[in-house]
Amino acid sequence: MPTEAAAAPPGSSPAPAGFVPVRRRRAALLTVGLLAALVLLALVATGTGAYRIALPDILSSVAHRAGLGGQAMDRTAESVLWNVRLPRVVLALLVGASLGCAGALMQGVFGNPLAEPGVIGISLGAAVGAVATIAFGWTFLGNWTVTAAAFVSGLFTVLLVYALSRSAGRTEVVTLILTGIAVNAFAGALVGLFTFFADNAQVSQITFWQLGSLAQATWPKVLAVLPCALAGLLIAPLYARRLDLLALGERPARHLGVDVERLRITLILVVALLTAAAVAVAGVITFVGLLVPHLLRMAVGPGHRFLIPGSALGGRAVLDGVELSVAAGEVVALVGPNGAGKSTLLAALAADLRPDVGELFIADRPAGDWDARDLALRRAVLPQSAELSFPFAVAEVVAMGRAPWAGTPQADDDERAVAEAMAATEVTAFAARPFSALSGGERARVALARVLAQRAPLLLLDEPTAALDLRHQELVLRICRERAAAGQGVVVVLHDLGLAAAYADRAAVLHGGRLAAEGPPEEVFTSGLLSSVYQYPVEVLPHPHTGVRLVIPRRATESGR
Questions:
Q1: DSSP summary character for residue 307
Q2: Do residues 457 and 404 make contact, with C-beta atoms less than 8 angstroms apart?
Q3: Is residue 481 within 8 Å of 458, Cβ to Cβ?
Q4: Predicted confidence (pLDDT) per residue in 164-215, tens digit
Q5: pLDDT for res 428
Q6: Long-range contacts, stretch 46-51, CB < 8 angstroms, 24+ apart
Q7: For residues 269 and 162, is the Cβ–Cβ distance under 8 A?
Q8: C-alpha to C-alpha distance for 285 and 301, rounded to whole angstroms
Q9: Angle at the Cα of 98 from the Cα atoms of 246 and 257, rounded to 5 degrees
Q10: Are 510 and 344 in contact (CB under 8 A)?
């Protein structure tokens, strides 16, 4: 099933500067506010308690320890400040940042604002190790036994969930969630069983640990969490843009160069690292990872470039024997009845599905030889439906199409590409509106704009006119013709045979998973073939003015009409 496409994306003319969301200014202001609030609360918490310490004394003692002048307080105050208060405050900052960041990552990976680290068993998995250690009196690592057991069992639980949910080399989100629920139930039963074997003193200790507490904070515990927290907090922002793209859905994200499977396993491991370390020293604390990202998303929007650091701060055979080539400069229409295999063929052309027999070539090279990003630079894909997990603005959604070009010289053209794509699809007027607030037809045009902004040599469009009115159907097909004239290859799935006849250079008629006919519409679109394929009588007539073929269903007439 070979396919080829021309090389370079077409040039473009100057366009006005792209839309810059107000959300960026809001995010900057909120970041400053969160940092200020964090410092203020840390100072208040350090001085507040049974033994009050004045703010000037705290600052003087810190400066003295840092060798910047100042002076030490009396022995009691120094001991309270440095051995009790500061370890608790620093540990609270690390645990809160770890759980908030982990929650933002989980919600991005699962595309659900109700997701939190406990969904994949980290919290209860860590609880199993801690409760078992307490109930059976294990002390093989001294005071570190409970912490180490919780950390190891939390990581083990995550790896177990991932291994059980993996099938055919991939992991689906729904399978991962359901596996996590099942493992959580089993872990909860184990916690109950171990608690049953514990004595009264151990039951109290288990209950205290499960409630979550920073009362036993020490500098060694801070140092135990610090490497895991820093590693996770430094790695997580590197995946912010890819998480934004994942909000489009797995297939669209893959079409934009995201290796979804690698992204998911990497971020799950980062979440496991952050959460297991936090839970190991502070017990089970669930509300931070659930609540903080959700509140920040409500305040400044769903973009993960702020949300992640902000949260740290606050098989059947469907096609058989199909061979199709797509050359640069032509529009190929895939037509046929429902279930004929059109979308499946398009998915195969997009390298989303691997053919059992034969091979897919893109730019004279097997598709499997391209990595996700290189593939995204060579083909852009419009799926049937356009849904987002979070309320990104229209301009932000279109800008996601530029993701494969990040870090290349072509990235300098991002604003122009976005502006031109929005103008071509007539969506500029609602650039600042949330994607979720648009009508079905408007969403379809925004999704098409994202694909156009990608500027790939091969366009694969799955039913782009399904939700559009007459005017915009014609607009989309004119865009297809313009892109082909500029040197791109276009494959489009259509149900309107009139549009296919008017705009396509070639039509591939699919029926029962096989290619029934392929060639120019004027040769392929015959009454006999189409009537047989669609199992309904069809008339094919020339247009009286243009001569383009008109495909009309033959309707039975009623008496008197």
A1: H
A2: no
A3: no
A4: 887 766 667 778 788 888 988 998 899 889 988 888 878 877 876 677 777 6
A5: 94
A6: 46/81, 46/85, 46/86, 46/89, 47/85, 49/80, 49/84, 49/85, 51/76, 51/77, 51/80
A7: no
A8: 25
A9: 20
A10: no
- In this structure, are strands 379-382 and 458-462 parallel, antiparallel, or unpaired? parallel
Q: How many residues does the chain have?
A: 561
Backbone phi, then psi, for 509, in 5-degree steps?
Answer: -95, 120
Domains 95-313 and 331-356+371-510 share a fold: no
Closest to 274 measured CA to CA, from 225, 211, 334? 225
What tokens appear for 157 in the block? 């639980």
Distance CA 385, CA 39 (A): 45
Domain 95-313 falls in which CATH fold?
ABC transporter involved in vitamin B12 uptake, BtuC (1.10.3470)
**What's the CA gap between 444 and 456, in Å, rounded?**
19
Distance CA 60, CA 78 (A): 11
Helices 86-110, 219-235: crossing angle, 10 deg rounding: 30
Is residue 403 within 8 A of residue 257, CB to CB? The reply is: yes
**Where along the chain do its domains lie?**
95-313, 331-356+371-510
- Token pair recorded at residue 243: 């998480």
End-to-end CA distance of the chain: 49
Instruction: Please give the structure tokens belonging to residue 527.
Output: 């009454």
86-110 and 260-282 are packed helices; what angle lies between their axes, rounded to 10 degrees? 150
Alpha-carbon Rg of the chain, whole angstroms?
Answer: 30
Judged against a pLDDT cut of 60, whether residue 14 lies above it is answered with no
Q: Rounded to whole angstroms, what are the CA distances from 503 to 427, 449, 491, 496?
A: 23, 19, 12, 11
Per-residue tokens: 401: 């199409």
CATH number, domain 331-356+371-510: 3.40.50.300
CA atoms of 549 and 255, how far apart (whole Å):
34
The closest alpha carbon to 250, from 179, 366, 170, belongs to: 170
List beta partners, residue 331. 490
pTM over 0.70: no
